[in-house]
Amino acid sequence: MSFSLAYLFPGDVLENLTGIVPANDAQRLALERQFRLDQSYFIQFFYYLSNLFAGDWGYSFTSGIALRDEIGIAMPATIELATYSIMIALFVGIPLGYYAGMRCYSTSDYIINTSSITTYSFPVFWLALLLILVFSLQLDKAPLSGRISLLFDVEPVSGFILLDILLSDMQNKSLAFKDALSHLTLPTVAIGAVSTASMVRITRRSVIDARNQPYIAAAVSRGLSGWQIFFRHILRNALLPILPLMAIQITTLITNTMIVETLFSWPGIGNWLIQAIYQRDYPALRVGMLAVSTLVITLTITVDMFNRLIDPSREKYEHAAI
């Protein structure tokens, strides 16, 4: 699909790939030979793949920097934001979901369930704008945009700004860490709130289903206490159906992250792609789409493989279904 984009973009294919308008026919023929445009589509695709695996991803029209280097800077920023957001969903959403499921149809369950449904119904861009309006513009408690203040010069090592600050030997490290954390707070909360609401609903439903299983009734008949039933039977059995659903949430998580990046001017892959669209930087769009797709597919497969490791019985049931 990324290879085909060069032919789907408006305009001349050669100009889309190179950004050069040939001055004459001789220059056009030379450029076509250089980029294999005079060959068949199969040869062009093979040339495209060989360049990708060799690390030659082309250059940005606007900055003139190699796209491999630009994506190497933008992608870790997106992964960092998504990582902190999913941590909020895991450490807040799953415990709340367990609590709501164990006290299902009580007042506390209704409050948690209503709050999660309401939060999940908010568009992530609207929630992000609301946080900016309240905490940045009215209360002046959080920065409006960026990843860290210009006062601090942090050398990128891992791509994660907090980790890079801890690894650096800069002065005023604690101030830089607090400043980066303040820049992270609002975008992380905007993404994490929607992911947490989804995790609460999934976990609550899983716990209720586990409580209605026959082995729970058998455990009650044996005289086990509520805590024993929870830790021995409900905790693990309710968690197993949640993990496969996390793979489905990855696409939504990355999409929400890319949307929020544009609102907070976060230097991630989403904001980078938006700027490429505005500037009609076709090579950047081509490689950026491939990078995002590769990230989503890799994370989804990784989560699914982890699910099979902790629950091998899933494979048996899937074969039986076939």
TrEMBL record:
Database matches in InterPro entries: MetI-like, MetI-like_sf
Pfam families, sorted: BPD_transp_1
Compartment list: Cell inner membrane; Cell membrane
Similarity comment text for this entry: Belongs to the binding-protein-dependent transport system permease family. OppBC subfamily.
Membrane topology: Multi-pass membrane protein
UniProt-recorded name of the protein: ABC transporter permease subunit
GO MF annotation terms: dipeptide transmembrane transporter activity
GO cellular component: plasma membrane
UniProt cross-references to SUPFAM superfamilies, sorted A to Z: MetI-like
